[in-house]
């Protein structure tokens, strides 16, 4: 029972983290019609920046804040130097160009920080387990991730649904040419949205950093999960991304935690221990396949294109 | 039909002659390295040509072609590990399994278009990658060493470098001939028609997705063959070889050479792998140059190398 609660929280935490990544991706895609494979690299850079700045300043919180700013600036610089030339181009061109950027970032990180991973140690006050319900302890840091991610999600909701900028963002997602024709500075809006997406990716990366090691290629696997999420949720839809991210985070975590035991009840020990890891890593892709069959446009499509 | 004598055709002809004569040069100069390098290049050219069939002619941007390389390779590797060394069994199995995988993921992915299609083929290929990493009986993450290359009962010896090179080259030319026949057949014209205007083709009465799916499966099967060749070339298969960056590299080869031209992927594979080889001799951090170069190619050299050559044709 306690294990179930713990794994549910793990699933929620992972799902929220995925949401931060997928939200930026889906915003950028929804508004600029731009596929950014290098989004995972921004996630990685967030983690590397955090590890470096935390080591410099000696403070985890200060390091994290500096890393957030650094990723935001990096995102804006990236947009300004390279990516804005790719708006309006073929999706294939965008995929190839940002694929090139991934190669670049991976080797740049290897050159600067070396091939070995970094560790981002937590301050003592975040390593203590917290008693959430009697008898169940949960790491304080993971609770912090859940809290921060929920706050960001709520903030994003308010910004997108309740402010003028958010109105422009939504308008941009449903009809780009029209808001340009209405006299909105689209270029500025694009840069802003891209920076926001980059900061969200950086935030996800730096928060994940103390749990996993900070290493080259860390952004790639999670980027593909983010793709799965926006396909399931419907491209361009923040609400869809949120639902799908929680869903995927839960299924992935619970599948890995409980599937081996479940299979052992049905299959023989040897067969179960071979099938379980394969099946639990396939689980979300199977889920995606099913959703595609039922609703090819995703669960919560943003707009009819 | 007699091909026109123009710059791009002349380049292709010279290139083919050079590929055929390469083992002679290698034997004469004692340069074995160039032969092993070009064996690899020829195999990747075949994989890129298969991707070009669906990307260039069918308009289907598959970001998961490395999966077939892995599946073809694992079919050979797993059968070899289980004691079935005959290529007459290994290779047909590699082709059939690749075709079946293409059929399943094609049927699902083709429900979508555009970016969704790119992401979904990517996700399914990643799924295949994760399955490969969990094959604990066959080396899991570390990969599977193939101790004996496919045995063709004395017909051809795959351990002989020259014979193996010519086998790969024959597969490449055979694959390109097949693609050429497909592209110019009624079937191929329908596929190209669907690429340019799906609604119109539907209205004329073609079941667009069926044509697309068959094309997707043919492409996957050819790529599975490349996978079987690659496994024999390296005597090794591993999940790393079907990681998504490999799919990206195949896409780059196709676009670099010239998407939708018959020999474009061959030129792209040669250019990409030679560049990679040169840069990695020059610096350990070759991707630091390759990455931005890719960005520049996308921004400024659309149509790839074949497109550039095509400009001379009119001059």
Structure description:
The complex is a heterodimer of chains A (305) and B (315). In chain A, strand 1 (129-133) and strand 2 form a beta hairpin. Helix content of chain A is 76%, strand content 3%. Chain A is mainly α. The longest helix of chain A is centred in the first third of the chain and has 31 residues, at 2-32. Chain B has 315 residues and is mainly α. The longest helix of chain B has 27 residues, at 208-234. Chain B is built from 13 helices and 2 strands, in the order αααααβααααβαααα. The chains are: A mainly alpha (305), B mainly alpha (315). Chains A and B meet through helix 4, helix 10 and helix 12 of A and helix 5, helix 10 and helix 12 of B.
Task: For the structure shown, list the relevant keywords.
heterodimer, A: 305 residues, two-stranded antiparallel sheet, 76% helix, B: 315 residues, mainly alpha, two-stranded antiparallel ribbon, 13 helices, 2 strands, globular
Summarize the SSE layout with pairings.
The complex is a heterodimer of chains A (305) and B (315).
Chain A lengths: L1 H31 L6 H19 L2 H22 L9 H23 L10 H4 L1 E5 L2 E4 H23 L1 H11 L1 H6 L4 H23 L9 H16 L4 H29 L2 H26 L11
Antiparallel strand pairs in A: 1-2
Helix pairs in contact in A: 1-6, 1-7, 1-9, 1-10, 1-11, 2-3, 2-4, 2-9, 2-10, 3-9, 6-7, 10-11, 10-12, 11-12
Chain B lengths: L6 H23 L2 H26 L8 H16 L5 H23 L4 H20 L10 E2 L15 H23 L2 H11 L1 H7 L3 H27 L1 E2 L6 H14 L6 H19 L4 H14 L3 H11 L1
Antiparallel strand pairs in B: 1-2
